[in-house]
Specification:
Translation Initiation Factor IF3, 27% strand, four-stranded mixed sheet, alpha/beta, 2 domains
Length: 180
């Protein structure tokens, strides 16, 4: 096997989804087609997230290794067309300060993220939460195996309550309560 020349290194240790994907995307913009980025992360969702991201963007995931407490990736940049595909994944997220009135019964918002890969389930959940009232819940269903650690990390980081998380075979179901 030919030796791989690493053009750029990226340390994403300590970051949770979607940050390793976002930082990788930004780092890839500085590379020329055919150049290789080495990215190291500690997020357990990084392997399925990076595999899905590479498939979606057309970049070539040369290696993905679980090295115990870290995960190492080698990604080869593809042509300019993939950067247009990557732009489709961007979205700005903001919090909403709408509150439920006392005694108000709030409906559970249904969110179907089946077929979407990281970071889209997290992004769509953030967008849904933004439009909801405090105390309201969203039930999100996904097929991306990375959604489990991603949603757990997102709930910890944002302070919203992950009420339930279930692995149902080919799907993953989450119930998240807006807390602020």
């Amino acid at each position: 096997m030919a030796e791989i020349t690493i053009t750029k290194q990226l340390d994403c240790k300590g970051l949770c989804c979607p940050m390793p994907v976002i930082k990788t995307k930004k780092a890839m913009k500085d590379l020329e087609p055919g150049e290789v980025l080495e990215m190291v992360a500690t997020d357990p969702g990084a392997i399925p997230d990076m595999e899905a991201w590479a498939r979606q963007t057309g970049h070539k995931l040369l290696e993905a290794h679980d090295e115990g407490e870290t995960f190492r990736f080698l990604i080869e940049k593809k042509g300019a067309q993939t950067e247009q595909q990557e732009e489709q994944v961007q979205e700005v997220v903001a919090d909403s300060m709408d509150e439920a009135t006392e005694g108000e019964v709030l409906e559970v918002v249904q969110l179907d993220c089946k077929g979407l890969c990281c970071p889209m389930p997290v992004i769509k959940t953030k967008k849904a939460i933004k439009e909801m009232k405090i105390g309201q819940m969203v039930e999100m269903v996904a097929t991306d195996p990375g959604a489990i650690p991603d949603m757990e990390a997102w709930a910890r980081q944002t302070g919203h309550e992950l009420v339930e998380a279930h692995d149902e075979g080919d799907t993953y179901r989450f119930l998240i309560k807006k807390t602020h």
